[in-house]
Here is the input.
Amino acid sequence: MEFKNAYLQGVYDKVCQRNAGEKEFLQAVKEVLESLEPVVEKRPDIVEAGVIDRIVEPERQIIFRVPWVDDNGKVQVNRGFRVQFNSAIGPYKGGLRLHPSVCASVIKFLGFEQIFKNSLTGLPIGGGKGGSDFDPKGKSDGEVMRFCQSFMTELSKHIGADTDVPAGDIGTGAREIGYMYGQYKRLRNEFTGVLTGKGLSYGGSLVRTEATGYGLCYYTAEMLKCMKNDSFEGKTVVISGSGNVAIYATQKATQLGGKVVALSDSNGYIHDPNGINLDVVKQIKEVERGRIKEYVNRVEGATYTEGCNGIWTIPCDIALPCATQNELDGASADILIKNGVIAVAEGANMPSTPEAIEKFQAAGVLFGPAKAANAGGVATSALEMSQNSERLSWTFEEVDAKLQNIMTNIFHNSYNASKEYGMEGNLVAGANIAGFLKVADAMMWQGISY
Ligand code: NDP
Ligand code: 2IT
Here is the structure.
């Protein structure tokens, strides 16, 4: 028995049977169900309405062929996905991941997490996720464009500004969103807010590029202030990844007085004890689409080490994993704790393994889970949808102020839920419960069929 509660055990057993072998999806579901133990005790009405049985099954899953022609004239075939997980509180919303590791399990875990994350933002967005096993790395702009157009040719039949609004994720940035948006418009003859993360010249929102990384730091700052009467000031920070989330987390952590000393990619990590020079990183990653090891050829005193796990051996006060799922395991958590880490907050989705989370919590390390800590990206996407609907654009300061307010509220709502359900300070349980309760309420009001 994994659960104390027999009903939750039954729900989980069924999820395991139906989704056999989908390791990431089962990991994400298990964590949420564990958090719901006290909710099940307190709220028989939720159990009675079958909300939990329903919430673990996607409303709709679309899997499709994505054929395209490479620069040598050869036909290539990838697999596309869109999982429309839950629309109880708004149109499906969530990113598109382009990475060779993409499969049903990965998209379903991301879509499932997105339900609760989107609910926590306080904005009217349901949960969804999509993507493909296409790898944009090493492809020409022309190849990326042809892939994106083919992908959108099918996806366009299933999405819409009031139905399902995709955005970026790993491997999907401004370039890919632009090609996909162009294709949607071509097919539909419609200029609508069907995607977020758009360029500023065609309906994008200021701050969306920075939002996930900035939001992560706003959340972390609030957690440090309220739970430890502390701040980023003077702290050594280690951030994994060197993509969109990692870059803007580095920028904000530095602005808040921290010193970021390490970044990584899937090949290895750089250590710069003088503090990362972000202009150099942006040039390498955003302009040249190069590898992070290039940094050490341009900045004196920095070192590069092959392999990404070793980044967690660098002593730090604050660790922000911003690359991918399960990148921080129990052994890495032990080292971080031994080196005196005081706070860990997740910029990536599910970057810490369950063992790592358990260790941080047992050691009294502040732990901000992904659903709460990285919700700033999707929250700002929802603000982009609002601006598109009113055909207006807000200023940088206006959007940034809203983002800060949202992240502060997410921290407090999660904290308060953890307290109300008898686990004060457990922000994993708090985020899962607070995110769940709003969606559960909406599902109950709307009757049994989704
Ligand atoms: P990017 O594609 O911009 O960057 C991804 C970074 O993570 C790269 O440095 C990449 O290295 C590294 N990475 C990716 N896969 C792996 C892997 N299997 N092993 C080791 N390193 C890896 O993506 P984002 O920055 O947008 O996304 C990073 C994380 O943040 C993801 O978990 C995403 O789901 C999450 N997230 C993103 C949001 C957004 O708004 N973009 C919002 C909320 C969460 P390499 O170049 O070598 O592949
Ligand atoms: O994981 C995430 O929240 C994202 N990739 C952002 C989704 C969005 O719709 O902006």
In short: The mean pLDDT is 98.
